[in-house]
């Protein structure tokens, strides 16, 4: 098994919290893992991505070759589009639909959504709204992770365990809020697929 | 299993150093090296063993502190980004002449593709230049093991070892299995060769000849190193030399094993003996190296050779930037994989100053004065978050070269007739390399306005302690700036009229003015607030 995931977003959105949970789950599974992160200047509101690779076999490159990523997981719709050349032809894009507009020339949302809808496999969701709905407004990232879990790359229960490990020191309430958000994201993705 | 840890390459180096019996880390923050020191600062062994772990004023003081520790027989680590090597070049080159007593490792993190840097210089050149060994791990496990090995090598051979990482190695996480064997720290003990440590010509001439001989041994050691390996292949039409992490990009393209003979290189001086063996096996050699073509240049003479050499210089590999599996794929002549077309609906998203950042308010006030009242003004800036003042909507600065260049370039321009000549740097850059330039300005009575945009931290790298926090005005006064022309302002929109008045007054004063513009970085302020 191998899963190559590109996590995308804008510096400051916190894509690394998603990577941390997946990494923790993968480590418990005994999977090989490589996770290239972005630190430094881009974290100041620039485009950021993280290459996350999981495999039952040893992994060579820290970077994912073009045309091979199984998943693009993005906290921002236009940022999902930035990495499309890395996506495998049968890969999935799971993205937040709420734009993060910190540039003057952000393209019209209709064009962004139209481009996303042309992709072969898309799950698009408003992670902030869903997080609020389930009473976990600060856990939008975990909604996105839940939707990603729909692709079954790691057993969702292992990811919940990862959430428990990562957020455990912040207390039971924080863990529960994140689990709720995760479940809501997963349910949304399942529901969207069955439509 | 329980022992396995998910570590950044930087963290693997840090853990390797801790397990090798480290007594002190000396560093100035710089992407992508910062996490080495941060990991050591957070590690329980550091408190348990009283390991020295404070940020230094700059890379030169870091290197010197570590060299002093090595002199006293302890194991020390120096960490910096590639351009920091320029700042510490004097003690670095000197340390090859003194040699190491306690193990001394210099971690230099290069940034090819300039993700967060002003150039892409390759730190391996310092090894050739100073006659020092260079270790370049290809993965995180190797980063851990090679750091431990580097300390032993440093002590056995009495030489500092440069540990070279590049961005992808430094900032990529993988599972590392550390050793259970945690070595004790060294006892205080002084050098067996005391003359080396006084580099008077009479001693240095002797040492130089000795070092030239040592360097031959370093190369022989590299040829025999377990971190370097020549493996045969089934297809002898091509041989590949893969340095550091480029080895991974090579292997990524051959899931079932590389058909060509491969020379993997992670320890330098470049082992020419192994390259000669490879050349006996194949007519053509492709050189893959992250950074500048160091190995390729060493292989490629002026005179033609029987072996054809491919690499960055002949265009087989892209000439600049960091490598990727795709670049290597192209260089190997493999067809590109099918991809979806790049999206047409994309706008670039460059980094920007945070909303609410004090630098924003400083630049707004500065622009309000200069753009209308002093259109001939030039603003010399520096390295830090505030360099983003170059971007729209501010477009407030004209130069950014290296740490400290703002204050000194402003003086050169002032003496050439520029007026107003304004320097802008941050508090951490000021104590790193700006203070000496300010002393020059005082001594030459330059007509300059030097601004310190003080956010009480080293912000760009994530908020490390800044060496002069709380003492900026005192330092300026101590260097001889007239206290009447050390002005402190608080950058907030409501203060624009006051800020603009102060800027105007100091431009009209024809001498050295320092304007300290102080408000805490909003990132660290948020963190401090959430801790409370």
Topology:
The complex is a heterodimer of chains A (195) and B (532).
Chain A: E1 2-10, H1 15-29, E2 32-36, E3 47-55, E4 69-74, H2 77-82, E5 87-96, H3 109-117, E6 121-125, H4 127-133, H5 140-149, H6 156-167, H7 172-194
Chain B: E1 5-8, H1 9-19, E2 22-27, H2 34-42, H3 44-48, H4 59-71, E3 75-81, H5 84-87, H6 89-98, E4 104-110, H7 124-130, E5 134-135, H8 140-157, E6 161-166, H9 167-170, E7 172-176, H10 201-224, E8 229-231, E9 239-243, H11 246-252, E10 262-265, E11 267-268, H12 272-281, E12 284-288, H13 294-299, E13 308-310, H14 325-331, H15 358-373, E14 378-380, H16 405-415, E15 421-426, H17 427-444, E16 448-454, H18 472-478, E17 486-489, H19 496-508, E18 512-518, H20 522-531
Parallel strand pairs in B: 2-3, 3-4, 4-6, 5-6, 9-10, 9-12, 12-13, 14-15, 15-16, 16-18, 17-18
Antiparallel strand pairs in B: 1-7, 5-11, 8-10
3D structure, described in words:
The complex is a heterodimer of chains A (195) and B (532). With 195 residues, chain A is an alpha/beta fold. Helices cover 42% and strands 23% of the residues of chain A. Chain A has a single domain, classed as Pyruvate-ferredoxin Oxidoreductase, domain 3. Chain A has seven helices and six strands. Chain B folds into three domains: 5-224, Rossmann fold (3-Layer(aba) Sandwich), CATH 3.40.50.970; 229-331, Rossmann fold (3-Layer(aba) Sandwich), CATH 3.40.50; 358-529, Thiamin diphosphate (ThDP)-binding fold, Pyr/PP domains (Rossmann fold, 3-Layer(aba) Sandwich), CATH 3.40.50.970. Chain B has 20 helices and 18 strands. Chain B has a six-stranded mixed beta sheet, with helices on both faces. Chain B has a five-stranded mixed beta sheet with strand order 8-10-9-12-13, with helices on both faces. Strand 2 of chain A pairs antiparallel with strand 7 (172-176) of chain B.
């Amino acid at each position: 098994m191998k899963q190559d995931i590109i996590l995308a977003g804008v510096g400051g959105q916190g894509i690394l919290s998603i990577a941390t949970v997946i990494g923790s789950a993968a480590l418990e599974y005994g999977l090989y893992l490589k996770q290239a992160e972005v630190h430094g200047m881009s974290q100041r509101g620039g485009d950021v991505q993280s290459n996350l690779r999981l495999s039952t076999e040893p992994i060579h490159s820290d970077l994912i070759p073009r045309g091979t990523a199984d998943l693009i997981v993005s906290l921002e719709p236009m940022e999902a589009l930035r990495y499309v050349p890395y996506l495998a032809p049968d890969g999935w894009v799971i993205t937040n639909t709420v734009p993060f507009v910190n540039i003057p020339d952000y393209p019209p949302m209709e064009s962004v959504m139209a481009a996303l809808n042309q992709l072969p496999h898309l799950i698009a969701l408003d992670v902030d709204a869903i997080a609020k709905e389930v009473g976990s407004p600060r856990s939008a990232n975990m909604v996105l992770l839940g939707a990603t879990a729909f692709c079954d790359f790691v057993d969702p229960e292992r990811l919940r365990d990862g959430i428990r490990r990562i957020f455990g020191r912040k207390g039971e309430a924080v863990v529960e809020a994140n689990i709720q958000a995760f479940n809501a994201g997963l349910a949304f993705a399942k529901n969207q697929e069955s439509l | 299993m329980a022992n396995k840890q998910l570590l950044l390459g930087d963290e693997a180096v840090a853990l390797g150093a801790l397990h090798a019996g480290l007594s002190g880390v000396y560093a100035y923050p710089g992407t992508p090296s910062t996490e080495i020191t941060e990991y050591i600062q957070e590690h329980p062994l550091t408190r348990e063993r009283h390991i020295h772990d404070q940020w230094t004023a700059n890379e030169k003081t870091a290197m010197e502190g570590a060299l002093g520790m090595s002199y006293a027989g302890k194991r020390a680590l120096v960490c910096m980004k590639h351009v920091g090597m320029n700042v510490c070049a004097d003690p670095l080159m000197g340390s090859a002449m003194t040699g190491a007593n306690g193990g001394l490792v210099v971690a230099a993190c290069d940034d090819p593709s300039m993700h967060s840097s002003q150039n892409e210089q390759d730190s391996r050149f310092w090894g050739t230049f100073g006659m020092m060994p260079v270790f370049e791990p290809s993965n995180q496990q190797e980063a851990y093991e090679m750091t431990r090995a580097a300390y032993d090598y440093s002590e056995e051979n009495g030489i500092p070892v440069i540990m070279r990482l590049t961005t992808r190695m430094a900032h990529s996480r993988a599972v590392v299995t550390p050793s259970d064997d945690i070595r004790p720290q060294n006892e205080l003990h002084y050098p067996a060769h005391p003359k080396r440590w006084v580099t008077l010509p009479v001693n240095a001439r002797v040492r130089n000849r000795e070092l030239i001989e040592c360097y031959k041994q370093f190369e022989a050691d590299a040829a025999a190193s377990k971190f370097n390996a020549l493996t045969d292949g089934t297809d002898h039409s091509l041989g590949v030399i893969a340095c550091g992490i480029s080895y991974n990009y090579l292997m990524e393209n051959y899931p079932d094993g590389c058909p060509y003979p491969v020379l993997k290189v992670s320890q330098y001086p470049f082992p020419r003996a192994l390259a000669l063996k490879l050349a006996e096996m194949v007519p053509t050699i492709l050189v893959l190296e992250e950074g500048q073509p160091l190995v390729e240049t060493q292989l490629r003479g002026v005179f033609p050779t029987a072996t054809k050499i491919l690499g960055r210089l002949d265009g087989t590999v892209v000439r600049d930037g960091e490598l990727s599996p795709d670049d290597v794929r192209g260089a190997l002549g493999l067809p590109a994989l099918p991809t979806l077309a790049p999206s047409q609906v994309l706008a670039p998203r460059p980094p920007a100053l945070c909303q609410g950042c004090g630098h924003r308010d400083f630049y707004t006030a500065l622009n309000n004065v200069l753009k209308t009242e002093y259109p001939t003004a030039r603003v010399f800036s520096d390295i830090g978050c505030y360099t983003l003042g170059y971007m729209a909507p501010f477009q407030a600065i004209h130069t950014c070269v290296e740490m400290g260049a703002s204050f000194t370039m402003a003086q050169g321009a002032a003496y050439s007739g520029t007026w107003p000549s304004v320097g802008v740097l941050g508090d951490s850059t000021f104590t790193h390399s700006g203070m000496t330039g300010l002393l020059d300005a005082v001594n030459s009575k330059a007509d300059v306005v030097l601004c310190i945009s003080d956010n009480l931290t080293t912000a760009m790298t994530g908020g490390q302690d800044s060496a002069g926090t709380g003492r900026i005005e005192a330092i300026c006064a101590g260097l001889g700036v007239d206290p009447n022309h050390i002005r402190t302002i608080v950058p907030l929109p409501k203060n624009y009229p006051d800020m603009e008045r102060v800027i105007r007054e100091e431009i009209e004063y024809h001498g050295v003015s320092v304007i300290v513009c102080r408000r805490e970085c909003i990132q660290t302020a948020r963190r401090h607030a959430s801790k409370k």
